[in-house]
Amino acid sequence: MENKFEMPQLRYAAGDLAPVISEQTINYHYGKHLQAYVNNLNNLVAGTEFAQSSLEEIAAKAQGGIGNNAGQVLNHTLYFEQFAPKPAASAPQGALAEAIVRSFGSFEEMQKQMNAAASTLFGSGWAWLCADAEGVLSIRQMANADTPLRYGLRPLLTFDVWEHAYYLDYQNRRPDYLAALWSIIDWQVVADRLK
User: For the chain, which residues make up each domain, given as ranges?
Assistant: First the structure.
C-alpha cells in the first residue's frame, strides 16, 4: 500500500507564536507553502519506487522533484514542530546541553555559530544543528531543500532562511528574525531528537 503524506499537526494556534512569527506568516508558510509541498510529494511519489517509503527515506535518497518536495516536507515539519509559544526553558538542559558544550564550548557559542550560518547562507535554504552517529554536534548550511539525512546526520534544530519564512514579518532583516527565533524554541523537542 502506498504512503499518503499528511500535514504535521501544530501544537499551537496560528497566532500563538506572534510577534516572533505572525499569524499571517503561519497561514502562508505552514498553510500554503508546506501544504503545496505535501500535495506535490503525494502526486510525485505515487507509482514510483518510493511509494511505500517513509518521508525520512525519501528525503535521504530521492533526487529531482521527489527529493526536493520530500526534503521540504521533512525540513518544514522539523521547523514547525520545534516551536512553542511559551517554552518551558530558555536554554537546553541535560544531555543536549552537555553535547552542545562538548562540541562548541558553550551554548552562547553554538547560538553565535548558528546565527552566522543562517544569516550568511546565500539565497534560500536552511541552517541546521546536527548530530553525527557518535553524538558530535555540528552546524551546517544547506541550500534549497537539502537535509542532513543525505549526509548521515541527525537533524536537531533548524532555521528556515527561505524568504517566505520571514519576509512578511521582518522584510530584509534576516538577522532580526534569527535572533527572535531563539525565544520560541522548545528545547525538549530538540533534546528528544538527540536521543
Answer: 23-81, 94-194
